[in-house]
Amino acid sequence: MDGAIHRAGGPELMRELQERYQGCPPGSAVITGGGHLPARYVIHAVGPRWRDGNHGERELLESAYRSAFALAAEHSCASVAAPAISTGIYGFPIELAAPLAIGTAATALEAPGTSLREITFALFSDQDLEVFARAL
Prior knowledge:
Layout: H1 2-9, H2 11-20, E1 29-33, E2 41-45, H3 57-74, E3 79-82, H4 94-110, E4 118-121, H5 126-135
Parallel strand pairs: 3-4
Antiparallel strand pairs: 1-2
Helix pairs in contact: 3-4, 4-5
């Protein structure tokens, strides 16, 4: 998903990211303008690479979502589209990721005074959608 977002956002997206930030460690997120995308912002959240589940992967994934949703709220966003972070080439099992993602989204939507009204998960496949639907 990351590559598709950067291709669609154009070179300005990567340029802004590199000019404003010196990296983004797993479990955190940063924000840029939307580039050529029909969005005001792109939130770049970095999830963990799956090792074996015994190296803080769950906590880092939850932190990545929490950081991303907090940035969206800080920038007065009402709606967010989020991928299934780390479930592609980073190998995080989607069956474990889906409940974490949904739970963190629900908490963000319920936060007092939040601007967030809707979080939509943009998923890679019908199988991913089925896993998220079961988790929901």
